[in-house]
Amino acid sequence: MAPNSSERQGGAVGSPGEQGLPVLPITWRPSRTRAIVVTVAVLMACSMSLVAALLPSDGGAPWPLPDRIAFGGVGFVAAAVLCVLARPKVVADRGGLTVVNMLRTHRLEWPQIVRVNLRPGDPWVLLDLDSGETLPAMGIQPSNGPGAALQAVADLRSLVELYSYTGRGD
């Protein structure tokens, strides 16, 4: 079965389904932030490599080959670190929610999510969990525009409400 291919505002993939709910699976990611970070990473790697290639290898202050290679390598290490900033996303499917933050990935079942929060000034969505913990969901950010973030939060709240019923009377 082919994945959803229609783009929703805010970097979410899917289209409105029945009852106004998004079609699952749906992915939210901060597309503006991602584009900027990837562009800066490519520029960093290219510019540091270019400078390393142009450093003098002879003359009054020569740069030995290992030093020039290390200088160019620093650009690629910095680009890799920047690419970690482009990693966050939130993926919702019928089984639950996958939250990919910069360094960790969390898999949550729908009943584990108690509340979806995006207060004014918050950099990203915060998920209140049934364990009493709060999990940042960095894939939904107001950086794509407040309207896109509010729509993503509304969609996620609707999905949590629909799929969180456990049959235990809660």
TrEMBL record:
Give residue ranges for domain Low molecular weight protein antigen 6 PH. Answer: 87-157
Transmembrane ranges, per UniProt, are 35-57, 69-86
Q: Which domain of life is it from?
A: Bacteria
Give the UniProt keywords, A-Z: Membrane, Transmembrane, Transmembrane helix
Q: Under what name is this protein listed?
A: PH domain-containing protein
Please name the source species. Answer: Actinocrinis puniceicyclus
